[in-house]
Amino acid sequence: MIIDVHNHPDWYGYNLERFLDNMKQYNIDKTWLLSWECPATEYNPEYIKHIPDPDKPNGPISFERCAAYKEQAPDKFILGYAPDPRLPDAIDKLDHAIRLYDVKVYGELKLRMMYDNPDALRLYRFCGEKGLPVLVHIDYEFDTGSTYPRPNWWYGGGIGAFERAVQACPETVFIGHAPGFWAHISGDDQYNKTAYPTGPVLPGGRVSEMLRSYPNLYCDISAGSGCNALARDREFAKQFLIDFQDRIMYGRDYFDNVHQQLLESLDLPKTVLDKIYYQNALKLIPE
To answer: Any idea where the Amidohydrolase-related domain is (predicted)?
Structure first.
């Protein structure tokens, strides 16, 4: 069995038919289908060619699209929804979606705010009460060479703000994702200079330290950031996956197969692969 814990509806031109065909092609049994609710001023306009709802106030990837997929293929999708916690009705909207649509995940949270914002903490605690894991995207601000409208697009306020949130809400499960999280697999200083650090993983990485300190923290290896974090130092990656096998989950955030290819190339024990591919996801969201 394989569960993809991170993907989006109508993302990069994949409609429902193409999405289901793609899952079948790569032997994926279920997908956590995540919304992305974010003001248009807070994401790179380059995304407009890849997202389904750039003009909607609840875009760029609306929860309505997630719900429509679930309605048409109920056995294939687990619903995620992340209303902006800065809005006064965020908890009410999430509570309604839990009761009406059976939402199981708060995600993807990808906003230009500090993730230990008091409003966000209140929402995380609500998620803890309801048993919803919180999946976050973290990016740092650094100059990518773009001149308009911004040099880069930060999300979450860095690993420090995220760690404070994880620490403040011990009853809530958090799932780390994206460049600003995975760069901290290493103790080097590349995390705020490039989205995809290179070279051997150095001691002192915050990801490992946080996993040891906070039992409510899990990891999502999706996207180029997760794949790069493991591929940059394969010897370290194998031991990392073995050491933290109970809290690492397979995800894609796209429609290729690079994560499976990487995992299969590391000669991991089947017991470890099974946990990463599906058992840890089922532990958080039993079926």
So the answer is: 65-284
Residue 202 DSSP class: P
Beta strands in the chain (DSSP E): 3-7, 30-33, 36-37, 60-61, 77-79, 106-109, 134-137, 174-177, 217-220, 248-249
Q: Which two tokens stand for residue 177?
A: 């994702």
Q: What is the CATH number of the domain that holds 80?
A: 3.20.20.140
If one counts the domains in the chain, the total is: 1
Percent helix, strand and coil across the chain, each rounded to 5?
45, 15, 45
| CA separation for the pair 248, 266 (Å, rounded) | 15
Q: pTM score, two decimals? A: 0.97
Q: Do residues 33 and 60 make contact, with C-beta atoms less than 8 angstroms apart?
A: no
Strand order in the sheet with 30-33: 3-7, 30-33, 77-79
- pLDDT for 95 beyond 90: yes
Sign, CA dihedral 32-91-120-146, equals: positive
Give the residue numbers spanning the domain of 168: 3-284
Residue ranges with strand state E in 65-149: 77-79, 106-109, 134-137
What confidence tens digit (pLDDT) does each residue in 207-262 have? 999 999 999 999 999 999 999 999 999 999 999 999 999 999 999 999 999 999 99
